[in-house]
Write a structure and sequence with these properties.
about 140 residues; mainly alpha; two-stranded antiparallel ribbon; 3 helices; about 5% strand
Length: about 140
């Protein structure tokens, strides 16, 4: 039976029928896997943004004709696809409605953001402050 409300317990089926947890050890390993995949999602997002900045600096010479053969643009598209797949799998895992899975994924996203992407906020804030010419901002 699939739960339709948030529940707490060690018995969970995650993503596929064969991924069942029937003991506390298997449940804790599942939570660890969710945490690691959520952190990996943030790592891949950081890599994708870095490749995107490389790709945007490649096409600066001809702004009207984008360079689709750039290796950085290809890597950006590939990382976007991988990151989207991991993100959708995380969303489907949360849809198991297990409270532990939910917390493991949210904590994994937060830790991954802190480890891999928190420096992006500082760079973005500096870039916005430099580009913003409005006196009221």
């Amino acid at each position: 039976m699939m739960h339709m409300t948030l529940y707490w317990g060690k018995d969970v089926t995650l993503l596929i029928d064969s991924w069942n947890t029937d003991s506390w050890l298997s449940y804790l390993l599942t939570l660890l896997a969710c945490f690691i995949f959520a952190s990996f999602y943030q790592y891949m997002e950081d890599r994708r943004l870095r490749f995107r900045s490389l790709a945007s600096s490649d096409g600066a010479s001809v702004p009207l004709l984008p360079n689709y053969r750039s290796p950085a643009k290809f890597a950006t598209a590939l990382l976007f696809g991988i990151n989207s797949a991991v993100g959708y799998l995380l969303m489907l895992a949360i849809m198991s409605f297990n409270g532990g899975v939910f917390l493991a994924i949210v904590l994994g996203l937060a830790v991954g953001y802190f480890l891999f992407r928190s420096a992006d906020d500082e760079k973005m804030a500096a870039a916005v402050a430099v580009e913003n010419v409005c006196a009221c901002a």
